[in-house]
User: Fold this.
Amino acid sequence: QSALTQPASVSGSLGQSITIFCTGTSSDVGGYDYVSWYQQHPGKAPKLIIYNVSHRPSGVSYRFSGSKSGNTASLTISGLQAEDDSDYYCSSYASSSSVVFGTGTEVTVL
Amino acid sequence: EVHLVESGGGLVKPGGSLRLSCVASGFTFTDAWMSWVRQAPGKGLEWVGRIKRKADGRTAVYGAPVKGRLTISTDDARDTLYLQMNSLNIEDTAVYYCVTEGYTYGYHSLGVWGQGTTVTVSS
Assistant:
């Protein structure tokens, strides 16, 4: 199972919105509504911020939203804040009964 | 509060073995699917494998890079998850995280993470 494809880096100014794309295949992203997104700050464990494509866990800011179209999922961060400066990973359930992660995106808040 | 604490990491020579442990608290461990995820230095996340809940027979599934060398098991009486790692190679050097899969939130979402334990394979 190959890793899902994410851009290596995305940047935006404070208050702006950015979108991170996560591209897979019909055997993972396109085949199931089990896409999740994680935020990871340096030296810390990842944190779940989106599950089942577009649902937010309790306590996660409304500024994070997710969607999916075909084999591509996306995470949008609106109203960028300094604390959003972090690494972001998508994941999806795959037909091999595994979980596959994205390659990761470094978000820089300018 | 759901809490996961890993231990057992350390320095091991290529070809060696190591067993990682993860003690769970704050939830019904036997009802949870549990996964291991690893992250090599400066690299992305990689799913290692999962073990299903007790009612599903505690069956395990593994990612391709580790199949045949790593074994996931549990001691349900001690609320503990294990990762037995054999025939270790340099590429297994990583932080290993214990994670709940689909327990708190949606199916196959990795909801609660431990703090991680570091495994270094080096001669």
